[in-house]
């Protein structure tokens, strides 16, 4: 079944737009769970947490770079979402709404943190598995540090889309759903965010990074 909803976009991104979506059995199940939550059934929120906890923790980890803080922030975001669930429109997707709650918590956490540049970098930057030499490991570790420093220096908007794409490996369509923006906007925004990240890394390292952005 295909339908069209008028979904308010994130205020930081622009106007309301009509977004086509496909109503699946999962959507119906999620809607039923939310309606039960709104009727006061606290246990109905547990399957929603289970469904999105890994994604939420991964986003927070990419933002704050500390595993314990990321878990605390994602749990707090779910707690806040539950407390506000009676104001949520059950006919809309849950995760984009929840994502904004989590994002704001991450931003506030970074703003309060006095040790934001001392967080464990190895937790925040994905590492490809495989056999490598000690020298390759050292080079990869240094690159992770540069990437994290670069991500810490880009705008909040750039950081958000980089985390969704590079840390969580979401598709353009999935990112568009989360951010409530058109797919074309995702592609152009990601292209520009990668360019600005490369510029920040070049400024930090003083050694230009080779290669072009791959979409």
Task: Describe the model.
With 215 residues, this protein is mainly alpha-helical. It has a single domain, classed as RNA polymerase sigma factor, region 2, helix turn helix motif (Rna Polymerase Sigma Factor, Chain: A, Orthogonal Bundle). The protein has 9 helices and 2 strands, in the order ββααααααααα.
In this structure, how is the largest beta sheet organized?
Answer: 2 strands, antiparallel
Gross morphology is elongated
Q: Give the CATH H-level superfamily.
A: RNA polymerase sigma factor, region 2, helix turn helix motif
Helix proportion: 55-70%
Average pLDDT, all residues: 77
Question: What is the beta-strand fraction?
Answer: 5-15%
Low-confidence runs (pLDDT<50, min 5 residues)? 1-23, 114-124, 210-215
- Find the CATH topology: Rna Polymerase Sigma Factor, Chain: A
Second rung of CATH, namely the architecture: Orthogonal Bundle
Descriptive labels:
single chain; 215 residues; mainly alpha; Rna Polymerase Sigma Factor, Chain: A; 9 helices; 2 strands; 63% helix; sigma factor activity; Sigma-70 family RNA polymerase sigma factor
Annotate the secondary structure layout.
Blueprint: E1 2-7, E2 17-22, H1 25-38, H2 46-64, H3 67-83, H4 94-112, H5 121-124, H6 134-153, H7 156-167, H8 172-179, H9 183-205
Antiparallel strand pairs: 1-2
Helix pairs in contact: 2-3, 2-4, 2-7, 3-4, 6-9, 7-9, 8-9
State the gist of this model:
With 215 residues, this protein is mainly alpha-helical. It has helices at residues 25-38, 46-64, 67-83, 94-112, 121-124, 134-153, 156-167, 172-179, 183-205; strands spanning 2-7, 17-22. The protein has a single domain (2-205), classed as Rna Polymerase Sigma Factor, Chain: A.
């Amino acid at each position: 079944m295909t339908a069209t909803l008028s979904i308010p976009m994130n205020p930081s991104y622009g106007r309301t737009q009509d977004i086509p979506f496909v109503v699946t059995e999962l959507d119906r199940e999620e809607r039923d769970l939310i309606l039960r939550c709104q009727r006061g059934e606290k246990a109905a929120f547990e399957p929603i947490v289970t469904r999105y906890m890994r994604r939420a923790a991964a986003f927070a980890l990419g933002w704050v770079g500390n595993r314990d803080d990321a878990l605390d922030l994602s749990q707090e975001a779910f707690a806040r979402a539950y407390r506000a669930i009676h104001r949520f429109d059950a006919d809309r997707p849950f995760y984009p709404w929840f994502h904004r709650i989590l994002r704001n918590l991450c931003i506030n956490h970074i703003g309060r943190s006095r040790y934001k540049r001392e967080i464990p970098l190895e937790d925040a930057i994905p590492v490809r598995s495989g056999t490598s030499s000690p020298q390759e490991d050292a080079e990869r570790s240094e690159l992770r540090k540069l990437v994290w420093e670069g991500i810490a220096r880009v705008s909040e908007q750039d950081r958000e889309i980089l985390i969704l794409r590079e840390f969580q490996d979401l598709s353009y369509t999935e990112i568009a759903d989360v951010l409530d923006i058109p797919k074309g906007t995702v592609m152009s925004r990601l292209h520009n965010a990668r360019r600005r990240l490369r510029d920040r890394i070049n400024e930090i390292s003083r050694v230009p990074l080779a290669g072009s952005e791959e979409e």
